[in-house]
Amino acid sequence: MPNALEGEIRRMIAADGPMPVARYMALCLGHERHGYYMTRDPFGGPGDFITAPEISQMFGEMIGLWVAQTWADMGAPQAFALIEPGPGRGTLMADMLAAMKVLPGCVEAARIHLVEISPALRSLQRKALGEGVTWHATMGDALDAAQGMPAIVVANEFFDALPVHQLVCVAGEWRERLVGLDDAGKLAFVADPRPSPLATLIPEALRMAEDGAIFEISPASLAAIAEVAGHVAAHGGAGLFIDYGHVQPGHGDTFQAVRQHKYADPLADPGMADLTAHVDFAALAAAAADRGAAIDGPTTQGRFLSQLGIGVRAGLLARNAPQKADDIRAALARLTDAGQMGELFKVLGIRHPELPPRPGFS
Ligand code: SAH
């Protein structure tokens, strides 16, 4: 028996033909009633996956220090927009705000804007952060609400949740990879018979490829970072984006499903698993530079957190709570070791060109 969302997707395909992977992904994650993020709290032990802010408060604290330093280097404006798209449980923002208290006036100056589609997660965010927060459905709405104030935008694992298009090379032509129905009526990948106009976005050096090669493009991510960069270049501020992905663009299929901490088939049980794709940091950086922002990195999460002093912070926490020292050391390793999150996760900074390079990127 197909689940309710699969039934709907099959009906859409029967009516309109196969749909782009990006549309399928958007439905699975964001469908009003059945979307993965719309109904549940997917994070943490019993959930489907765990993110850096949920591993340890140290992650958000380091980023809070980065925000505070950036605010100071901007000349400590009396008001700035602090924007977080995809805030999950609100843990990162709560830990950041705690650390930002090191600089008097910084928290008071922050006007907090969250970009979140999920009603379930909005209510968890309200619990974590209280009422002094404004929610928006899109990045554009949040930037509009900033009303020309400088903005600091921080996102962890946001871009990987935005829909990705896949192009597949067929006989020297790039065609959109679609989700259709096979002979048995089950969801299956098929290639569009026509070449895709998105192929112009593939870097020159990667246009020639073997049959079956895949190239991924996330226009939603490019549009979102371009909007942030445009705002920062015009009104001041900076952005910090942490996600798993690659620094060099390349061919490959990274569209994946994770359910209960295990990889799953992305076409099985739509809406029941987290769907993601690796983030193309080169494309994000180029989109931001195009709109006039200066770029820091990308660097690895391990190097970034270490430069901000997470090792020192871990030592301090462990001394204050010796009974938790092993947990703290394990969390530090999980966040920074190459074999864990330290290398797969990358950090990209963008900033107003007159702001000096941000901490964590040297
Ligand atoms: N930053 C959090 C959560 C990451 S999961 C953490 O690190 O724990 C992705 C988050 O993005 C969730 O809050 C999800 O509901 C939100 N999200 C997914 N797609 C979105 C979209 N199109 N617009 C806004 N938020 C989205």
Walkthrough of the structure:
The protein is an alpha/beta fold. 40% of the residues lie in helices and 24% in strands. The protein has helices spanning 4-16, 21-30, 36-39, 52-55, 57-73, 91-100, 106-109, 119-129, 139-145, 219-235, 281-290, 301-307, 310-320, 325-336, 338-344, and strands at 19-20, 80-85, 110-115, 133-136, 151-156, 165-170, 173-181, 187-195, 214-217, 237-246, 256-259, 262-264, 274-276, 279-280, 294-300, 345-351. Strands 2, 3, 4, 5, 10, 14, 15 and 16 form an eight-stranded mixed beta sheet that branches. Strands 1, 6, 7, 8 and 9 form a five-stranded antiparallel beta sheet that branches. A three-stranded antiparallel beta sheet has the order 12-11-13. Strand 7 and strand 8 form a beta hairpin. Helix 14 (325-336) crosses helix 15. Bound molecules: S-adenosyl-L-homocysteine (SAH). S-adenosyl-L-homocysteine (SAH) binds next to helix 2 and helix 4.
